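Dear all,

This email documents one entry for the complex benchmark we are building for the journal club exercise. For each entry we list the sequence lines for every component of the assembly. Then comes the predicted three-dimensional structure of the complex as a token string, followed by one or two observations. Please use this as the template for your own entries, and keep the labels exactly as they appear.
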Amino acid sequence: MSALRFEVLRFSDENLWRALSNPHVSPAEVRTHGRAKYLHRYLASLKAQSIVVEADYTDGDYLDDYASYYVKCFTDYDRRCKRLHFFKTLFHDDADFLRKIHGHANKEEESKLESDYLGFVVARPLPQAIVGRTILRTYESDNGRRNYTCTRPYTANLFGLELTLPSLAFQEQDTVLAACATVSLWSCFQKTAQLFGKSAPTPAAITRVATQAVHHGRPIPSHGLMTSEICAAIRHVELEPEVFTIRPSLPVVSLIYSYLKMGLPVILGVEIEGVGGHAITIAGYSISDQRRRPQEVAGSSSGVNLVGLRLDAFFSHDDHIGPFSKVVIKPAAKFGEKVFPVCFESDWVDQDTGRKLPLYPHVVIVPVYHKIRLTFLDVMEWLTGLNAVLKLVVPPSSPMEWDVHLMPSNEYKKLIRATETIRDDLRERILLTQQPRFIWRAKLLVGGVDGAELLFDATGISRSFPMHEIVWLREDLAVRVKQIVDSSQLEPILVKFLTRQFLDFIKRSIHDQFAPPALFPGNSK
Amino acid sequence: MSTLQGGFQETAATERNVSGGKIQLRDVDITLAEAELRLGLAEIIIARENIEKARVVSQETLEFKFSI
């Protein structure tokens, strides 16, 4: 180790074990550590070449854990950590690295250094939970298949060199101040802090606030949190918890996607066969062009085909596995007496047999901004009736698919501005119309072609009429729908399916978008 | 050639389509009885009931503990 308290190592398993070790854990013990092994595999896939070990690193999150617990232990724990930085660049020695730090590198070299920066892992000086705050680059998108929507920019300052990368912070639980649920919340709050300007408390602070009201027994050492305690922690950071009990008929994959798409991390509570209840943070998804399963619910489907049918996996922060670990979506399953709409598989295996253990979903919890009052289920209620009516004009040979997701209306306007294929008058109409801050967008694809978009006021309430706009992207579709909704013969049944208000709204939307312009607009008065 | 109210013609509309692909559409000249059959009222009632059920967060869910 140099006098400057750093060390440059070639990336290898042995060097990683050594860099992660501390007086309580030898490199040989690190070799058997699940998260360390995962990190090695992950970084090798990202083509890591060098490790720069920054000694004597003060990590704010660990410092709070230290002040809350470790400083009061009889055993002597260090208050400082190591920080391991990973690069795709191969530094030959300390001097090679120092040359770049000293600012002797040219602009091109500096820019390459930043693009080659893969992130860092804080190595905590603890006996078990050695993987502290971890900020790592994600895998490439693979032509849009992989979507890491819940990342945000992080900047690491390495001896004056600012290195920025998109990621979502991960750490493993220490089982003293935090169990899986606390760590899952901690990762979520990293992103919601950026999205909504709310706080991102430390694990120790999350456990404290979550267990203030109803916790039975001592909160520290932590033995986990209940759903109600997770909700309390979410309210503490001035967000609202949307909680969904998983039932056989709930399209859970599309539900999770609908929040992820906006960048909102989702806490998925699962039961692992023979292990117990576990919470993970979902931070991204993998989507295909083709359907991956015929339906995403158990039993009979509602007939509303959702985009979730094309998702094959989620990317999760599982504190027992590692950051951005793959959670594969499997078909409906039965466990005991319970039927689940889907189940999941990740790196959880039976230690004796090596068999993959299914993860059965029990609950989905989403921390949302308090003004987002409309939920995925509210949107589904409106879509169910409309989807049925659309079946009158769309034959089964042109499958319909709904892409339902939450988004800020400003992002929607940006999207509309960038869409070249939209008609100018329609673009202008959308851009000039006042929108609520958050909207639910339900985009209809007919046979893979954009058909229409429904915009809902996400700040509205379900019992009101939250529909904000229908954008007809295909005039031929609008023509057929108009023939149906204008039919006096069909009106009674349409009102039953859609409600009078929705029926009139559809009629008006078609009329407004396709009515001919006035002959002499300037003389309208 | 079908027309929209106000005389806007479908052929002109096709030229202004926002997506290049073609979509197949059904003949919509149907009777009420046919519409009822296609709509599948029973299916929709069940779907809506399921949505109502899904709104309820069970006590078991609230007490579910994540402890691994």
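Observations: Chain A touches chain B through 79 residues (CB under 8 Å). The mean pLDDT of chain A is 91.
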